[in-house]
Amino acid sequence: MMILATNWANAALMALVSIMLVFVMLVLLIFVLKLFGVIFREKQSAVVSTASAGASDGITDEEVAAIAMAVNLFFNRHDEESDVLTFRQNHDVSAWQVRNISKSL
Prior knowledge:
Layout: H1 2-5, H2 8-54, H3 61-75, H4 95-104
């Protein structure tokens, strides 16, 4: 009875509007992402040109070596472990364990 009471014209219209809305939003999202790409590409090229101008300040070899050593020490540090595995033993025996122990004997 529910099938006969459904207005199929309204259901089809709602399905069509829903599908069209999804596709319109996807196209809009593509345009927004392309716009972000254009905006950030222009900013990135400006940052690269200013960074290349700042690199000519002249960092000495000693400063480069100190920075490299600091980065190496920072990323290669680790804590020392004893390589001993410890397990907490539970000495409380449940009824299930007693049953299994008595069957194995």
